Amino acid sequence: MGLVPVAQERCSPDLVRSARFRAAIESSLWVPASLLPDSGVKWEQVGADEAQVTFERIDPAIVLRMTLDEEGAVKEVVGQRWSNANPDKVFRLQPFGGTILAVATFDGFTIPTGVAVGNHFGTDDYLAFFQARITGAVYG
């Protein structure tokens, strides 16, 4: 029939929890307004160039650590994602994140335009399975 399966698991609480993390990390990079305190996000400075961002309205809360440059642009982001991308194929919290390779400003928002992210960020098992180059964004 010309169909190609792209996922083999049906919806489950594990997949929903994993997807929530993905939505949080993507919105933190490309929808900067989602990080405002009115959206239920708490900011905490945890180092000279690091911020911890907690999405408190999500249960359990999602915590991201961002490394920022001198102008406040994100250079790196990492958090603990609920995932079964491990040799045991068992859902558990494990590092997920990546580096920002380039940034640009669109409609007044400076966002990453080059990213490389993946599971097990910061470990020997890291593989940047998602790499993208953003060529434009419209906010309105």
Textual characterization of the structure:
With 140 residues, this protein is mainly beta. 13% of the residues lie in helices and 43% in strands. The protein contains 1 helix and 7 strands. A 7-stranded antiparallel beta sheet has the order 1-2-3-4-5-6-7, with helices on one face. The protein is globular, with a radius of gyration of 16 Å.
Total number of helices: 1
* Helicity, as a percent range: 10-25%
Estimated share of beta-strand residues: 35-45%
Please state how the strands of the largest beta sheet are arranged side by side: 1-2-3-4-5-6-7
Mean of all residue-level pLDDT scores: 93
Structural class designation: mainly beta
Largest sheet: 7 strands, antiparallel
What is the radius of gyration computed over CA atoms, rounded to a whole number of angstroms? Answer: 16 Å
> What's the number of extended β-strand segments?
7
Shape: globular
Low-confidence stretches: none
Notable characteristics:
single chain, 140 residues, mainly beta, seven-stranded antiparallel β-sheet, globular
Topology:
Blueprint: H1 13-30, E1 41-47, E2 50-55, E3 62-68, E4 74-83, E5 92-106, E6 109-119, E7 130-133
Antiparallel strand pairs: 1-2, 2-3, 3-4, 4-5, 5-6, 6-7
